[in-house]
Amino acid sequence: VLKLFRIYLRPYYWIYIASVCLFLIGGLVLLYSIEPKYSSTCRMQISNVEMRTVDLRDVTAGNMRGSAFVTTQMTILGERFILNDAYARLNNAGQKHGRCSGPYIRRVPDTDLVDITIQSVNPNSAASLANAIANAYIDFMKGRRGDISASGTELLKDQLEDAEKNRDRALGLFLEFKT
Prior knowledge:
Strand content: 5-15%
Number of strands: 5
Oligomer: single chain
Shape: rod-shaped
Number of helices: 5
Distance between the termini: 132 Å
Strand order of the largest sheet: 1-5-4
Helix content: 55-70%
Order of helices and strands: HHEEEHHEEH
Largest sheet: 3 strands, antiparallel
Structural class: alpha+beta
């Protein structure tokens, strides 16, 4: 048995020692080359208090309660145009942003709160991008409310014109009937 040990195993001891040394060197290289990831979360409340019930060209927007409204708003928050607007805001402000992950948007259970989480190797980049996404969403919703108000005003003007035409037609028929 000792003869077999000397022939087959003893000459290869250096491989075992070398593999352990290479493993330790690789672990040290990996340890010093990994960039830490910082995570920043912006929490915002999604509320439909300012969004009233609007009948718009036979489409009822309604006052949505519960998760349907918040889920829809979370989808809007994750859209590419919101992210592009946020990056444009950062560029216009002269803030440098490093590599950032896409926004992770999740709802806080049983609330109207939504967390926007960004991960980056730079903590300031993560925080500024999360805040920029929230501000881009807020401005988008303000603009959208203005568009809905303008469309509602146009609809009401059209309905008023139709009512005036009907009134004039009815008045004409009444006068014709009376004479």
